[in-house]
Amino acid sequence: MIVNLATQKGLTFCFAESCTGGLAASKITDIAGSSRVFLGSAVTYANEAKSELIGVKASTLESFGAVSEQVAQEMAEGALKKFGADFCISFSGIAGPGGGTPEKPVGLVCQGFASRDKKQSRSLQFRGDRLKLKERFALSGLFWLLEQLS
Predict the structure, then answer these.
(1) Inter-CA distances, 39 with 23, 33, 65, 97, 145, Å
(2) Per DSSP, what are the bridge partners of residue 109?
(3) Sequential pLDDT tens for the chain (150 residues)
(4) Beta bridge partners of 41
(5) How many whole angstroms separate alpha carbon 25 and alpha carbon 107?
(6) pTM value > 0.90
(7) What is the DSSP track for the chain?
(8) What are the structural domains, with CATH classification, of the chain?
(9) Which burial class, exposed, middle or buried, applies to 93 when counting CB atoms under 10 A from its CB (0-12, 13-18, 19+)?
(10) What distance in Å separates the CA atoms of residue 148 and residue 150, rounded to the nearest whole number?
(11) What is the crossing angle of helices 130-149 and 2-9, to 10°?
(12) Angle in degrees, CA 2, 123, 102, rounded to 5
């Protein structure tokens, strides 16, 4: 549906992925014809990759942490610029089983959206094991992209 809608509207999109490890891109590339509208995904798992590949500021990472709406927003904006796409969704979260804190528990995902005229971020909380969480993180971002395209 995302690929068809983007194709109909003549729009392109990309992703900036951390906790999903390329899963969102994999789901899109499972669809024949996706290369017409999907430009790629920057899998930036390490903080250094977030900074060097898509321009997340070290000061943002230091102030808010990798799993934050601020970092997710900079990821989306940086990948949008790097790929030259019309839309970008980013993913940064904690899939566990470790790594969570009371403030940022396992199952937290921060997502960013960027287009030429709109910027938005959000935080969502899910339950499940690592693989289920990655799946839920990716699908929630794909549904958000579909919403933005509609």
Answers:
(1) 15, 12, 27, 32, 14
(2) 93, 124
(3) 999 999 999 999 999 999 999 999 999 999 999 999 999 999 999 999 999 999 999 999 999 999 999 999 999 999 999 999 999 999 999 999 999 999 999 999 999 999 999 999 999 999 999 999 999 999 999 999 999 999
(4) 15
(5) 20
(6) yes
(7) -HHHHHHHHT--EEEEESTTTTHHHHHHHTSTTGGGTEEEEEE--SHHHHHHHH---HHHHHHH-SSSHHHHHHHHHHHHHHHT-SEEEEEEE--SSS---SSS-TTEEEEEEEESS-EEEEEEE--S-HHHHHHHHHHHHHHHHHHHH-
(8) 2-149 (3.90.950.20)
(9) buried
(10) 6
(11) 30
(12) 145
Which of 123, 95, 127 lies closest to 110, judged by CA? 123
Cα–Cα distance for residue pair 51/60, rounded to 1 Å: 10
